[in-house]
Amino acid sequence: MVPAASMLSRPIRLLSVASEMFPFVKTGGLGDVVASLPEALSNYGVDVKTLLPGFPAVLAAMRDTPARTLRMPDILGYEGLIWSCQIGENDLFILDIPELYDRPGNPYLGPDGCDWNDNGIRFAALARAAAFIGQGVIEGYHPDIIQTHDWQAGLTAAYLHYEGENVCLAHGMSRRPKVVQTIHNLAFHGSFSTYDRSRFGLPEEALSVDGCEFYGRISFLKAGLFFSDWITTVSPTYAEEIQGSEWGMGLDGLLRTRADCLSGILNGIDTSIWNPARDPVVRFPYIAGDVIARLSNKLAFQSEFGLPQDRNAFLLGVVSRLTRQKGIDLLPEIMGRLLKFNTQIVVVGEGDRIIHRAMSALQRKFPGRFACHLGYSEELGHRMQASVDALLIPSRFEPCGLTQLCALRYGAVPVVSRVGGLADTIVDANEAAVSRGVATGFLFSPVDPLSLAAATERARALFRSDREAWMNLQRNGAMTDVSWRGKAVQYVRLFAKLSGTEIVEQIGHNIVRLPGTERSGGKLAKHMNQKRRVARKPGVSGPSLMTRV
Length: 549
Fold this sequence. Notes:
globular, transferase, EC 2.4.1.21, alpha-1,4-glucan glucosyltransferase (ADP-glucose donor) activity, glycosyltransferase, GS/SS
């Protein structure tokens, strides 16, 4: 049973378009959000279908699942299929073009760590397929709203704009769907040469300031921001920050002109997955808020990384992409200062090779006090949250951040920079907030080594001097609502406004899920036990519209 703030007068059909979705493909928070938001929206009457590229892991997950497919003879010069299937709780469309997506490893990078040189056409094709679906090419499916996530889906709104309403009307739709462009990280524009305009299927008029052009190139994200009906980003503070020159990444002028249709809505996390009482990779499960039971996990985590098992050590963690944006390059300059007074630090993540080498050097320099795992690990990410005393998140900018939300739920006290969603979700443990019993973490600014060191020392001092106050921080964090519940309502109201759907207030009522629709608490274990198989391209035969069982 899920409390509901409102009920829609009719269901809203939402097509979500993204390049990542946990557990199939994930490089960061985008994959988690695309996976967890649909169920939250479904509780309020929004029916979500997600369009993904046919990466090997996605097709592997579909292999034994009944599916329907639509043959697409020409998607920007490629023959492809659009599969429609249900995988677990996920209602999916999958764009299957082997020449573009049948590649192992990272969805964006080749084995050399560089972008695939055809990323432009790879994600233009995804947006082109999204526009086709939005125009009604799949019989019986006419979405009201298309939510396009980041630059990879940014051209969707442009295709719908340039082709107008007539294509939609020809497929029996009363109007074209509204497009909501969601910014998860404005730093990545999807910028490509204007010589690719015709290859991307864009008209000449797209190469203008009132189109897809951005400083002499084609920007997929700029196209989405310019042509979408509404823009959302993932926290209120980030929505303000990106309208300024420092974090607007050159698009601040456009965003200011569209400020009347720009919303900042915080992300949530899937609390059935992020649940320390049921998390299958946490060695000693515990109820959220039970700060005593976490000690066994701390000792086991210290042992796992070859650190002395010492309950009194101040154990700090970093789980992050190892990039300059995340501020990880600040650590080497102050590591000696951070490790004073029986402090230990564990880093888990992957990213820039220069930062990798710096972390390895720190491990050699501070054995028994500093340890790192250089590589992505979902399991270590969960175990760290259940084990460390505090989590460092020194991001130079952070649109929302999910790591601090997970930390709050698991009792790892966040030490974070005062930017974006970090500022929106953490209450600083200053003297007044601690005395009132409302603090949840430690905020610092500006984002520089000395400020980070000072905030960490504040945290360590409270941990050492007043353990009861420290445990209150942990309990406050565990009591914070980090779920999608309230945030999903904001999306529902926006989608209702754009689609012309009435919201009927339901005060004191609940929406009751039908039997069999609840998520399993053991979902993460199921995902982690699945092997990442490489699928062969499904056969292409028979009529254009096929059913596979």
